[in-house]
Amino acid sequence: MAEAVTDDGFVVFDRVQKSYDGETLVVKDLNLSIAKGEFLTMLGPSGSGKTTCLMMLAGFETATHGDIRLGGQPINNIPPHKRGIGMVFQNYALFPHMTIAENLAFPLEVRKMGKSEREAKIKRALDMVEMGSFGGRRPSQLSGGQQQRVALARALVFEPELVLMDEPLGALDKQLREKMQFEITDLAHNLGITTVYVTHDQTEALTMSDNVAVFDDGRIQQLAPPDLLYEKPENSFVAQFIGENNTLEGVVTEISGDTCLVRLDDGEELDATPINVSKVGERTKVSIRPERVEYNKERLQEGAHTLKAEVLEFIYMGDIFRTRLRVAGNDEFIIKTRNAPDVERLKPGQQIEIGWLPQDCRALDA
Ligand SMILES: Nc1ncnc2c1ncn2[C@@H]1O[C@H](COP(=O)(O)OP(=O)(O)OP(=O)(O)O)[C@@H](O)[C@H]1O
Ligand SMILES: [Mg+2]
């Protein structure tokens, strides 16, 4: 597990634990340092502790153990109105008795901003979420997705130093969602806002973030930039949770430096890169991404490991071909191939040989 956080990020969680009932820990050991201006996403399954972490950072819940620091100071010592935090919650609570424009004016009035500046900011924020003509309505007169967009505008309108967003785009359709993803990251980067964003949509996490913290069971399983997270998962949970992944199970039979040999459960042997296996005899799940697998002999690189496979299904998807294979007893082995004129379209029942480089094949915990 991670060491205690000693560097001074803008936001720091230092050995934080949280229990609501005094018995079970829903956050077990959280160590996280977020730089000023960074866009960090917390990604993880339902119940893994993401909202709890945001609530502690916002000051609505207190940590059972450990420290949370904002700008070098323990959060408990900073009064809420001085925290400069903008928030969008999972249940976008707008003030029901105020119009949309009044909802947005509120954080600006609290900050004693003059009327003309206020109006310009409100307009800009509402236009950003495509709600420019709704300023006079009340929240009850809007759809769920529209309310969510207003909540987003209200969190950003006063250009806070830190914004916390808990699934802010959950109620939007795909097109609007993608547009808003772009708007949010663009705005955050342009204004230098530090953002802690929560989602369980992994595509959203990969496309928006500087860093992603993958949560499971009250712990960060891996914290990394999107490309590293996808290409170099450090454990089986992360490999399965992020993107599509093939798993072959077996036992480590040899291990030396940066290579190991794995005997798969059907008897075949395979070269892999040992990631979190340490000794001979240990069970392992070997992970290979679908786009790293090649079946065209001419394209196989030197040193590639090959295995026999049977084609079970071939799906034409336009830009790529998605083929399901039986490999070493696994009927759910997926490969993805870019559609190009010289690429063979496989047929169910066909026997082929597939290959990949040992460095693309990661021996992880079983
Ligand atoms: N106020 C509360 N009192 C008691 N238990 C709570 C409370 N809030 C959350 N929990 C529990 O803490 C755990 C973590 O919840 P949390 O809301 O942080 O999860 P999450 O990662 O945000 O999940 P989701 O993706 O479903 O929003 C869950 O088991 C949940 O039931
Ligand atoms: Mg939540």
From TrEMBL:
EC code: 7.6.2.11
Enzymatic reactions: ATP + H2O + polyamine-[polyamine-binding protein]Side 1 = ADP + phosphate + polyamineSide 2 + [polyamine-binding protein]Side 1
Domain ABC transporter: 11-242
Molecular functions (GO terms): ABC-type polyamine transporter activity; ATP binding; ATP hydrolysis activity
Keyword Nucleotide-binding on entry: yes
SUPFAM superfamilies tied to this protein: MOP-like (SSF50331), P-loop containing nucleoside triphosphate hydrolases (SSF52540)
Keywords: ATP-binding, Cell membrane, Hydrolase, Membrane, Nucleotide-binding, Translocase, Transport
Xref: Gene3D superfamilies: 2.40.50.100, P-loop containing nucleotide triphosphate hydrolases (3.40.50.300)
Class in the EC hierarchy, top level: translocase
GO cellular component entries: ATP-binding cassette (ABC) transporter complex
Lineage: superkingdom: Bacteria
Subunit organization: The complex is composed of two ATP-binding proteins (PotA), two transmembrane proteins (PotB and PotC) and a solute-binding protein (PotD).
Purpose of the protein: Part of the ABC transporter complex PotABCD involved in spermidine/putrescine import. Responsible for energy coupling to the transport system.
Similarity comment: family membership: Belongs to the ABC transporter superfamily. Spermidine/putrescine importer (TC 3.A.1.11.1) family.
Name of this protein: Spermidine/putrescine import ATP-binding protein PotA
The species this protein was found in: Aliiroseovarius pelagivivens
Taxonomic lineage: Bacteria, Pseudomonadati, Pseudomonadota, Alphaproteobacteria, Rhodobacterales
